[in-house]
Amino acid sequence: KPRIVVAASGRGSNFEKIAEAVSTGLLNATLECLLVDRECGALEIARNFGIRSYLLSKPWHKSFDEIIDQINPHLIVLAGFMRIIPENLVEKYFPRIVNIHPSLLPAFPGKDAIVQAYEYGVKVTGVTVHIVDKGVDTGPIIFQKALEVDESWSLEQLEEKIHQIEHEWYWRVIRELLYRPFEIVGRKFRWLDEEGL
Ligand code: GAR
Fold first, then answer.
1. Is 13 near ligand 1, meaning CB less than 6 Å away?
2. Per-residue pLDDT tens digits for 55-102
3. Residues with Cβ within 8 Å of residue 137, at least 6 apart in sequence
4. Which residues, other chains included, contact 25 with Cβ-Cβ below 8 Å and sequence gap of 6+?
5. What is the pLDDT of residues 105-151, one digit of tens each?
6. b vs e for 103-114, b when ≥16 Cβ sit within 10 Å of the residue's Cβ?
7. ipTM higher than 0.95?
8. 167 has catalytic annotation
9. In the chain, fewer beta carbons within 10 Å around the N or the C end?
10. DSSP state of 124
11. In angstroms, what CA-CA distances link 90 with 70, 86, 132?
């Protein structure tokens, strides 16, 4: 079975959906462990699922690298991990680090993307899943899902809709990445079979 590692810094709702998909067999992979850089909700979710977790000691990137080196996972899944992966690690693991971002990149990179999009007043936003490269939220795009913003929505309502999309799709994209051939040419990601996602 392919091995995956998840890194998170927050609530862990995306991690939870991935753990669920693994435990129900929808995602045929071994969830080796959770890595966090701070005390956060994701740790409790790991406990509930009986998944090993590590609170990264400082400097976080050194322990991150050491743990990942030992596990040698097929995929490193960032799920709300609020750190920039240093260049040397990106080089070492490319294209095996994947990230989810709550906007249609390249719009609203960085922190608080949902708030940024809401305050900007966009009529369409969404979710992006991409391979991590040396930039911040710049890597090859694997998947995007658009969401039309109803002008009556509060920020909280928009957040909820975005999270619903993330929860529905992230584990599916991970599954595809583990089981389908792909290539990256320049900054373009492309599936090598005909199915499309
Ligand atoms: C998610 O919305 C994820 O897209 C976002 O953090 C949230 C984590 O929620 N990530 C970023 O903004 C990365 N730049 P969660 O802890 O409940 O999964």
1. yes
2. 998 899 999 999 999 999 999 999 999 999 999 999 999 999 999 999
3. 99, 101, 105, 106, 109, 110, 128, 130
4. none
5. 999 999 999 999 999 999 999 999 999 999 999 999 999 999 999 99
6. bbbebbeeeebb
7. yes
8. no
9. N
10. E
11. 17, 6, 7
